[in-house]
């Protein structure tokens, strides 16, 4: 799945804009935009609205990439349950070692709703 930063960079490239030019037009710094594109930071609501407007993208299109709440919840759950932390760390190790793909990990976390979980 594409990240918010990757999506913004793709749209910026499609608009044939340099990072510095888009940052200037959005009235933000180039390092801040770079951090957004690299996934180090999330844009504020105001900046996200400017990006959507300038790149002619519905704001909802950008909002679907905002994973901050999910990440905060995951951290909280991992802190609450040592066994969950170990299981998640093992799963991440499996992905990093090529034993499992990200798609397979996603399926483990959210099984196909059409399948009976008890059967």
Task: Describe the model.
66% of the residues lie in helices and 0% in strands. It is built from eight helices and no strands. The protein folds into two domains: 4-63, 434 Repressor (Amino-terminal Domain) (Orthogonal Bundle), CATH 1.10.260.40; 68-109, no CATH class. Helix 2 (19-26) packs across helix 3 and helix 6 packs across helix 7. By secondary structure, it is mainly alpha-helical.
Q: What's the gist of this structure?
A:
With 119 residues, the protein is mainly α. The chain is built from eight helices and no strands.
Kindly report the name of the CATH homologous superfamily of the largest domain.
lambda repressor-like DNA-binding domains
Which oligomerization state do the chains in this entry correspond to?
Answer: single chain
Average pLDDT reading: 87
Q: Please, how many helices? A: 8
In the CATH scheme, the class of the largest domain would be Mainly Alpha
H/E order of the elements? HHHHHHHH
Biggest sheet record: none
Gap from first CA to last CA: 29 Å
Number of domains: 2
Note the beta-strand portion: under 5%
**CATH architecture classification of the largest domain:** Orthogonal Bundle
Low-confidence stretches: none
The CATH topology of the largest domain is what?
434 Repressor (Amino-terminal Domain)
Morphology: elongated
Number of separate strands: 0
What structural class do helix, strand and pairing data support?
Answer: mainly alpha
Helix % is 55-70%
Rg, nearest Å: 18 Å
């Amino acid at each position: 799945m594409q990240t918010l930063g990757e999506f913004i960079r793709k749209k910026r490239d499609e608009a044939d804009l340099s990072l510095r030019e888009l940052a200037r037009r959005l009235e933000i710094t180039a390092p801040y935009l770079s951090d957004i594109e690299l996934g180090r930071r999330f844009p504020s609501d105001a900046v996200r609205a400017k990006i959507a407007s300038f790149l002619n993208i519905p704001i909802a299109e950008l909002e679907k990439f905002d994973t901050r709440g999910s990440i905060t919840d995951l951290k909280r759950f991992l802190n609450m349950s040592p066994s969950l932390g170990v299981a998640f760390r093992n799963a991440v190790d499996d992905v990093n070692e090529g034993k499992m793909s990200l798609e397979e990990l996603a399926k483990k976390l959210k099984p196909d709703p059409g399948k009976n979980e008890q059967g």
